[in-house]
Fold this sequence. Notes:
By secondary structure, this protein is mainly alpha-helical. The chain is built from 7 helices and no strands. The longest helix has 35 residues, at 165-199. The relative contact order is 0.13.
Amino acid sequence: MEAIAEWLVDFVHGFGYLGIFIMTFLESTFVPIPAEMTMIPAGYLAHQGEMNGGLALFFSVLGSLAGSLTNYYIAFHYGRKFLYNYGKYIWFPHERMEQLDHYFARHGEISTLTGRLIPMVRHFISFPAGLGKMDLRKFITYTSIGATIWMGILVIIGYFIGDNKAMVKHYTPYATLVVLFAVATGIIFYILHKKHTDKS
């Protein structure tokens, strides 16, 4: 793992912002490359004066958005067709697709935003959004917000403690827990707000 981390530092250093874009694009599609392994080194390089932290964040969000849109379009154009034809064989009948459409019409924003902040879920949240025909502008907006929050946290970690691998290992899980707590809190407030709105 340490060798991979060093390789990623070299890759980001060698390819610069293009390297950040490529890695975050892959992370948001099918390749399980944790953003931590790209953005913490980027934050460290920003601390060293070899990168601009703001530009690193911008290209990471751009890469995340591009990867997410790729999954969205695959699910929207091909996933729906596949499930309409073969969904009944994998316990996904047409009624389930209609339920998914209805869900993302009502809750697509909070699902996409929070999904981008949850480990493992962030790699796959674009698929149900595409299957559920979530409004594209809303998908782009909330994907970008979620990506900005998470990538920003990683850049900050890398900037302040990226040269201390022991501290990175120690504090990154705490950052994840804080984000998950914020996500849970946000979801609770969202549910309460929805219930209040529905009653009005």
